[in-house]
Amino acid sequence: MRLVICPGVHEPKLTDCFLAGLSEVWEDEYPRQNPQIVDRVKVFPAHKYPPFSALDILHFLCSQDLAGENLVFVSFSAGVAGAIGAAWMWQQIGGQVGAFFALDGWGVPLGGTFPIHRISHDSFTHWSSAILGSGGDSFYADPELAHLELWRSPQTAKGWHISHTAAGTETAAPTTAAKFLVHLLKQYGVQSVV
């Protein structure tokens, strides 16, 4: 299982902060029992190519020797638009998509034959984005925080993990964006975020 990070339009340093925040939570929640198990995380160079370009992301994936790999996409802002298209195209050329995470993908329709989860910086973005495809479990920050802060510091973004039961009822549990993401990444078979 490979983790593919698709940033938005911002400084690359923020993506480094995002990965450090996830790694911090990962080590707290799942101390590494075998230090040899480290997934190679692929980070799309959004500072060189447009993050909203599905074709550029697909070309990047094809250049990374990922044939036969099951990919989990974690995307942010404009990167959500490019990543969802790249995920669909990855499947069209025979690849596998294990799951898709959209952080603040407001206005981006989400759908596919793979699990999809939305993570939002506030409740308005969360509920209004659900109209375009809510996917599975989701998260929104409460209190709301700045758009870039969700990417910079997911470990401090407090809010609600929203789940739906088989009976159709909705439940909300307090957590952070990083804990929500780490929990689901582990569930989908990602072994590490470093």
Summarize this entry quickly.
Helix content is 34%, strand content 23%.
Assign the structural class, choosing from mainly alpha, mainly beta, alpha/beta, alpha+beta, or little secondary structure: alpha/beta
Fraction of residues in helix: 25-40%
Pick out the low-confidence regions.
Answer: none
For the record, the CATH architecture stands as 3-Layer(aba) Sandwich
Q: Quick check: average pLDDT?
A: 92
Specify Rg, calculated over alpha carbons: 15 Å
Keyphrases for this structure?
Rossmann fold, eight-stranded mixed beta sheet, alpha/beta, 194 residues, 34% helix
Description:
The protein has a single domain, classed as Rossmann fold (3-Layer(aba) Sandwich). 43% of the residues are buried. An eight-stranded mixed sheet has the order 2-1-3-4-5-6-7-8, sandwiched between helices. The model has no long low-confidence stretch (mean pLDDT 92). It has 194 residues and is an alpha/beta fold. Helix 3 links the parallel strand 3 and strand 4. Helix content is 34%, strand content 23%.
